[in-house]
Amino acid sequence: MTGGRLAILACGISSRMKRSVVSQIIDDKSLIDDADLKAKSMIGVGANHRPFLDYLLYNARYVGYTDVLIVIGQNDDSIRNYYGMQDIDNEFFGLKISYAVQKIPTGREKPLGTADAVCQGLESRKDWSGKHFTVCNSDNLYSERALSLMLRHQHDNAMIDYDMDALQFERSRIERFAITSKDGEGFLTNIIDKPSEAQIEAMKEKSGYVGVSMNIFDLQYDMVCPFLESVPMNPVRLEKELPEALAPMVKKHPRCLFAYPLSEHVPDLTVKSDILPVKKHLQTHFPNGVFL
Hints:
Number of helices: 11
Oligomer: single chain
Strand content: 15-25%
Distance between the termini: 24 Å
């Protein structure tokens, strides 16, 4: 298959979305029903109730991705019901969509985190061994520019390093993301998940720029797999997170991951109060819809 390989993480249980309250007047009750019943990426915020994920897939197809793996949760069929029920090669407007299910271990109510999700996804796509793949969230809308950088870079691995000041989020939300530390040439030296206020301020004082990871990376399958498999459980959150797998990778392989600075907002669909701002963004930036 020609074209880029894209793994999309859509396997969380959307607990924050489901338990969040509606802080605005949302006239369309179906949006609230979507938020309470479906994966976040399947909320119909787009024109004619198109799901949010359609817009990410549209941008991905535009820049040249063709082979899409969606890592889904074991208790949600909303994505399969929309994009196709086959495990592999569902045809969707020029994309080939396949699925991997992130299984929840016995005794847990939630899956084991993003590193585990990527690991389980790659286990299902051993045909990607020896190749690059891009991985990103399903509840963020990455721009054509960001996706194109990931598809066409010439480094061993790469990521988008978002300017914290350009992200239109409240500070408390940004503090739940990861911040980056780079060397003088832009290669990642460390990635700090859910940093403290003091760590953010120290980074800003050091470089004048706080780079934020929004969980979009392009990675070498064979390089990253051992670190995904060996990442320890976070002792506080009891999950295995992707930033905590990449930190030891860049320590063992210096200059293996280039961080592309990008100053733009990334629409995010995490809680119900995000629904109307995201809907407005899509109306503004996609006036003609998608897949037309």
